User: Fold this.
Amino acid sequence: MRTPRFAVSLMEGALRGIMSRQAAGSVVRSVSLPTITIPPVAPGASELEVHITSLMVREGTLALGASNEPGETVLAPPSPHSQDLMIRMTEPFLERLLNEAWDSTPHVAEVRRRFDVPDPRSLLDVFKGAMDVLLARGLRRDRIRVDRSWVEADAVLQYSCPSVRLLEGGRVEITACPLHIGARLRPRMEAATPRGFLRWLKGSLMPRKGREQEEKEVVDLADLSKEQDLRIVKATARLSIEGGDLMVKIEDVDMDVRLDWGLPGDVIEKISAWIMEQTAERFPPIRVRLPIESIMIPVLGVSPVVRLNELRGGKGYLDVHADVDFIEVPPPISPLPRFLADGQLMLVHREGCPTAHQVPENAKIGYFSLYDALHDGYRGCPDCLSIYRHANTTEDGDVGRSVERVMKKV
Amino acid sequence: MDKEPDIVISMKEGAINRALAASFYANQGNGLTALLSKALQIDGADRGLRLLDPPMVVMLDDGTTVATFGAEAWGMVLGVRLEADVSASARLGAWIADDQALMEIQDIDLDMISSPAG
Ligand SMILES: [Zn+2]
Assistant:
């Protein structure tokens, strides 16, 4: 049955009237906004909740502002971007993420090095007592020859939570980061002393190359434990994306290292330079799991596949650029299938069937061939493929036999 | 007084359209998708619209959004209920106040697709 033409145009006119601007008036709909829960940015960190607080439509772009605290905010128009998505984080917000991530970052680095001291006299001057021990063994000072001297240093660097400031070009400045150093310092020397008689005898019976007339001994001049609190005055770090995470890596460090460790001046100088270098090198990289997907799910209502592309930043903010995809929408390359199967009711329709309208979207399966649909166990829709409404291929999966059975019943 | 948000999420309309399609085909959706369909699903004593396909949105320079969608529309005329499938384009204004998203249909334009037999 077809609706008479005059009825269609009457209906059209009426509907247009009903839905028109005047009739629709100003239909204002209000919908409560979802809260965005940001999962922990690092293992052990806590969740963050943010509220959508502002909205702005510009040509080709929709921007939403979100804040930790509810209440309206004023959105400055974000800079244009070519990627699907740009998330701008303010400095305090990024700092918050970094602080959360910091807790699960190892803050302790152990370093070790040996410093040669070319002039042993400088060490011997400081550690006079150690020499006395050797002398106490009955050796004469003029018979001891110091071949080498050095300081063995073991240090534990303990970093504390830094404060960050965003700079241009995806860099951050780290300020006021306390650093604690615990060090063990062992000034040592290798001294040659004249051999004892028995050893000399043994040596002459079994002569070795070089015919040494003396033996070497490593002497500990001291074993010092030192603790010192320092402060990284300023450091710059580079932000990057690694495996989908935001990484903060220190590039260079500016700090005052004044060590009051009772060692000769030139040795202290070397150790200070080393501590400084190690502080920069061992500064733990901070990994922040960027929760872009979790930010987008409540906003869009579906979960996107997010690909982080680049970071850009300016004074006081960091922009994360990303592209998003949705697995629910395949690329638009396939022709439209003419048969539509209902995966819930296990029915197959012709594409234009009015009942096909009612098939839930996530139950719709397109078939290019009716044969394939029947083979897969679908029965014909009683409205549009009623002849196959009793088709049953589930027993043998044989469409031909099934059609044959159907035809016999007809 | 003018507080800035902690995060700004800026989305291109291409991505929003793919998200709308994704939530439509997945038969799910909250957030923007639900917001938009709620705004478009006019329900009243004398008229109604029900979405049939994923709305397409275009963000205009004047701050409004045009949403184009297929819908089942119905209206009461002289006590008679009229129904039709329509292709509609609505111009929407959107803003936020008191933790609520507000959407206003400023204009709606209809194309008749079909009217069910009856
Ligand atoms: Zn059908």
Remarks:
- The first strand of chain A starts at residue 27 and ends at 32.
- Residues A 349, 353, 355-356, 381, 383-384 surround zinc ion (CB under 6 Å).
- Chain A has three domains: 32-101+290-325, 107-237, 339-409.
